[in-house]
Amino acid sequence: MPTTSPAGAATATATATGAFTFKDWEEHPAGPEGVLPRLASAKVTNSFTGALTAPGTTCAYTVAYTGEGTGTFTGMELVTGSLDGREGSFVLEERGAFDATGTRCRFEVVPGSGTSDLTGLTGSGSFDARHGDTAVDYVFTYELP
Fold first, then answer.
1. Residue 34 region, left (φ>0) first, then alpha (ψ -120 to 50), else beta?
2. Is 116 left (phi over 0), alpha (psi -120 to 50) or beta?
3. Backbone φ and ψ of 117, nearest 5°
4. Each residue of 1-42: pLDDT tens digit?
5. Residues 89-102, buried b or exposed e (16+ Cβ, 10 A)?
């Protein structure tokens, strides 16, 4: 059902689904290695398919390892591509945790980051990845004016 934005423009809530794959992961320690907890920074490139199509995103994460193979992360991901056929860019703020079973993440569009056809984009989503998965399903609920 359409709603009205503060500026009076009609908006509609939609849910995008698809998958993404890691194209590149480059991690560097941000403190002493071999001790816990420890920090690392990671630069990551992902490729999204489905309702959100982005061949190569740019991500920057800070990872906190709290145990062997467990921890949390926060990061920002610059997404450039199309969302249900509308072209533009936006930034996702991401927060998640990982353990021996996999990774869980929630993300939200950074307010004001949408460009071109995606100006005014708001929304949030999530993904759950099991270790060894080559493609990870995502769900993204969003509104566009």
1. left
2. left
3. -70, -10
4. 343 444 445 567 899 999 999 888 999 999 888 899 999 999
5. bbbbbbebebeeee
Which amino acid does the sequence have at 113?
A: S
- 119 HSE (CA, 13 A, CB side): 4
User: Which position has the token pair 């398919």?
Assistant: 49
Q: What is the pTM of this model?
A: 0.88
Q: What is the pLDDT of residues 36-74, one digit of tens each?
A: 999 999 999 999 999 999 999 999 999 999 998 999 999
Residue type present at position 83: L
**How buried is residue 85: exposed, middle or buried, by Cβ count under 10 Å (0-12/13-18/19+)?**
exposed
Query: Which of 35, 49, 76 shows the shortest CA–CA distance to 134?
Result: 49
Residue with tokens 């990774």: 103
* Alpha-carbon gap, residue 49 to 135, rounded angstroms: 10
Cβ(65)–Cβ(36) below 8 Å: yes
What residues contact residue 70 under an 8 Å CB cut-off, 6+ apart?
97, 98, 99, 100
